[in-house]
Amino acid sequence: MNIENHTHTYKSGFISIIGRPNVGKSTFLNRVIGQKIAIMSDKPQTTRNKVQGVLTQNDAQMIFIDTPGIHKPKHKLGDFMMKVAINTLKEVDLILFMVNVEEGIGRGDEFIIEKLKTVKTPVFLVLNKIDQVHPDELLPLIEKYKERFDFQEIVPISALQGNNVETLLTQIKEILPEGPQYYPADQVTDHPERFIISELIREKALHLTREEVPHSIAVVIDSIKKMEESETIHVMATIVVERDSQKGIVIGKQGKMLKEIGQRARQDIEHLLGSKVFLELWVKVQKDWRNKLSQLRDYGFREDEY
User: Fold this and answer.
1) How far apart are CA 217 and CA 20, in angstroms?
2) Do 108 and 71 form a contact (C-beta atoms < 8 A)?
3) Alpha carbon distance 77, 96 (integer Å)
4) DSSP string, 61-78
5) The predicted structure's pLDDT at residue 186
6) CATH number attached to the domain at 3-175
7) What are phi and psi of 74, to 5 degrees?
């Protein structure tokens, strides 16, 4: 590799982590991002991919996203979620298929492997919890997996102890394409909450006004502060709409709608942060903001960063 070239290229991409429940996906993310950031795992899935963590380095940005779980569908909705999951896998730059080495290959793993055969995205096999088994047990397991699928890389790690995690990150970086820095360096690393809180408020506002206000709502988090002398967190946010008529709808008669949005969002935010929240919402009209910001918003940028 041309070293001079390497120092100037910036790599970035989207990485999906899949695997049976309890293989250690959250532990891995928390280890990589350096804080408890995998907080979306217990939320019901929506089709929009959940950004679970962003690792920004001086020469790369790795965006880890969550996919709706891949498992045998039991009903129509499950079938639909399955399709969403497979489509997501086709759109990312890399798939990490994480398995728990203590458990051997299970039917769930076999099912996931069958689905992986339908996508062209490169797949790393990540064998987690190696601290729990004797090294001699690893080789036969690796052989079994190799027989079933042509993995781009096979990396044994311990997400809990941190063994080999840096090696995995280096290998991820090597395979990512050159690309832009999609998120500001501190956005999801230092403040995963900011992005998720804005999405929670936006979700409530859209849900409650969906008949009258199409997707022309953005939410800007103005500040998140811990209040003095108490454990309460004070969140100030602005809901941005395109027209005055939409502002009226979002505020509602005697402010009823805005109050309802606030109450529902506050409950979710409290659940997310694990502490009491005082949420202050404002509504602002910014004509045609979508035309100026739509591409940026697709990448998760918010208006306050520009």
Assistant:
1) 36
2) yes
3) 25
4) EEEEEE----S---SHHH
5) 58
6) 3.40.50.300
7) -105, -15
Task: State the average pLDDT over residues 179-183.
Answer: 80
Look at the chain and count its residues: 306
Tokens 């899935």 -> residue: 45
Q: Which two tokens stand for residue 222?
A: 């103005």
**125 to each of 57, 98, 172, 198, how far by Cα in Å?**
23, 6, 12, 34
Kindly report, residue by residue over 54-76, the tens digit of the pLDDT: 888 889 989 888 776 777 777 77
Q: Which residues contact 244 (CB under 8 A, 6 or more apart)?
A: 285
CATH of domain 191-305: 3.30.300.20
Q: In angstroms, what is the C-alpha Rg of the chain?
A: 21
126 within 8 A of 37, measured Cβ to Cβ:
no
pLDDT tens, position by position, 103-113? 888 888 999 99
Closest CA to 55 of 178, 166, 199: 166
In the sheet with 11-18, reading across from the earlier edge strand, the strands are: 50-56, 60-66, 11-18, 94-100, 123-128, 153-156
Q: What does DSSP say about strands 60-66 and 153-156: parallel, antiparallel, or unpaired?
A: unpaired
List the 218-226 sheet strands across, edge first.
218-226, 233-241, 277-285
216-267: per-residue pLDDT in tens? 788 888 888 877 777 788 899 999 888 899 999 999 999 999 999 999 999 9
Residue 274 has pLDDT above 80, yes or no: no
Domain ranges in the chain are: 3-175, 191-305
Residue 49 has what DSSP assignment?
P
Count the Cβ atoms, other than its own, within 10 Å of residue 58.
Answer: 8
**Closest to 95 in 3D by CA, of 178, 3, 159, 172:** 172
Percent of the chain with pLDDT over 90: 35
The one-letter code for the residue type at 73 is: P
- Please, which residues have CB within 8 angstroms of residue 238's CB and are 6 or more apart in sequence? 219, 220, 222, 281, 282, 283, 284
CA distance 141 to 151: 14
